[in-house]
Amino acid sequence: MPVSIAPISESIGVAVCGLNSSDFTVEQTATQCRQLLATHGVVVYREAHITDADLVTFSRMLGEVVIARTGGHPDFPEISPVSMDPSKSALAGLRRSTIFWHTDGLTDAVPQKATLLTAREVADDGGDTEFANTYAAYDTLPPERKAEIGDYRVVHSVAASQLLLEPDPSPEQLARWNSAPRREHPLVWTHADGRKSLLIGATAGDIVGMDHDAGRAVLDDLLDWSTQPQFVLHHTWTVGDLVVWDNTGMLHRAIPYEPTSRRLMHRTTLVGEEAIS
């Protein structure tokens, strides 16, 4: 089958068709993936049907791979099964918060570089994934808005994301969430290549030095701006799809699906290479 490459929209996403699993063991594919990520933020390999072994190989060609500390695949510790079914994933109970826009690893000093996700089983209803390009969102902000937010710093925490699910937690829940790591980051991340992205989403709780409600209004407004249709890619999964995204500039979220759904994804994550500044 001939290989085709086509942008999905002007600001986010590119679709690659015609590759099979063995193609992902070739350096040329990894080089091309890096180039496409830099330009489009999200690469969708349609119905590639990559095997677990080739997923690990391809991930290693793109960078250092995170080894799952818990809930990893029994044969490939680099792979994390993503499911709401406890029999398929030890982390099933923590997946509920992924329905909110977020960037992975913002309670770390160096967030993950990129994520690879492939569909093994899909939901009958829901379970799609959406991505939003915060590079493009920042670039199109009015100059006065950029100046206003340029020096803001934001506290990211597990508690902030969990409060979206449980707005009235018990003291025990709140204590548990507050014991998890939290991190202060600039609202605007200036990357080594000069591009700027927005560090917003579910883990963003407060703007340092600002009243909570006022800070919340700023963060919510920026999230609304960044998730306008022109910045968003909505991906409806087909078994065998592989999606790779730049975690340093893209927000993502899962569209809600039933906890009893058979939906099963296999995910690998690349270790971060750039500290936030």
From TrEMBL:
Cofactor(s) annotated in UniProt: Fe(2+)
Keyword terms: Dioxygenase, Iron, Metal-binding, Oxidoreductase
Residue runs in coiled coils: none
GO-annotated molecular function: dioxygenase activity; metal ion binding
InterPro entries linked to this entry: TauD-like_sf, TauD/TfdA-like, TfdA_dioxygenase
Family: Belongs to the TfdA dioxygenase family.
PANTHER family for this protein: (3R)-3-[(CARBOXYMETHYL)AMINO]FATTY ACID OXYGENASE_DECARBOXYLASE, DIOXYGENASE RV0097-RELATED
Descriptive protein name: Dioxygenase TauD/TfdA family protein
Organism lineage: Bacteria, Bacillati, Actinomycetota, Actinomycetes, Mycobacteriales
